[in-house]
Amino acid sequence: MTLDDDKMPASDAEGSGSDMPAPAALGQMLRQRRKAIGKTMKQVALEAGLTEGFISQIERGISTPSLISLYNVANALGTSVDTFLSQPPRHEHSMVSHAGERPGYNVATKDRVYELLERGFPGAMLNGCITQIPEGYVSELTSHEGEDFIYLIEGEILYEVDGKDYHLKAGDTLHFPSKLPHRARNIGKGPARELWVGTTRIIKED
């Protein structure tokens, strides 16, 4: 596995309701959308802040993007990230959310689970997500608008931000402008869990 890839073995992929593994199904959906609007992979990569090689790997089902990268790609394709999640997200507002009652979302693989935290009120600036990160996971290098605040709940993650490494263990935090190129590597034994809070509105409000 290279630092630019998020490759999952076929045995780890969930079924997508067809004979093809979920990463291939996601790649096909993205490729069909890109061709329908007449964009090249180079154009999508440039607008999404990713490499053309990584876009090619997604479309071929070799790699699966992180949620934020899928958000960037969806924006470049003129659509919503909701379309590509394992189930449609709830567009609700609640000042309180309870553990065990929040649904988990996947992007083409069952091992990386995103627990989206509902915004407390319409027009809220902050967005939150608790992510389960499998052992050995390495995200792609990405950037986007806004700012990110990360609290590592458990595990051990090496975050790279603008070419500098930050070694976080459970209880540590990281806060940086999201426009800086960044990625993460789970260097611990077993899965890690992080709380992300940011100003990027990944799931659009109705």
Polypeptide structure, described:
This protein is α+β, with helices and mostly antiparallel strands. The protein has two domains: 75 residues, lambda repressor-like DNA-binding domains (434 Repressor (Amino-terminal Domain)), CATH 1.10.260.40; 94 residues, Jelly Rolls (Sandwich). 20% of the residues lie in helices and 25% in strands. It contains four helices and nine strands. It is globular. The N terminus is likely disordered.
Summarize it.
InterPro entries: Cro/C1-type_HTH, Cupin_2, Lambda_DNA-bd_dom_sf, RmlC-like_jellyroll, RmlC_Cupin_sf, TransReg_Diox_bact_type. By secondary structure, the chain is of the alpha+beta class. Helix content is 20%, strand content 25%.
Proportion in β-strands: 15-25%
SSE-based structural type: alpha+beta
Succession of helices and strands: HHHHEEEEEEEEE
CATH domain fold name of the largest domain: Jelly Rolls
Largest sheet strand order: 1-2-3-9-4-7
Number of strands: 9
C-alpha geometry: globular
CATH homologous superfamily heading of the largest domain: Jelly Rolls
Described by strand count, sense and barrel closure, the largest sheet is: 6 strands, antiparallel
Task: Give the low-pLDDT segments.
Answer: 1-21
Number of helices: 4
> Percent of residues in helical segments?
10-25%
Protein name: Transcriptional regulator with XRE-family HTH domain
Pfam family, one: HTH_3
Organism: Shinella granuli
GO molecular function, one term: DNA-binding transcription factor activity
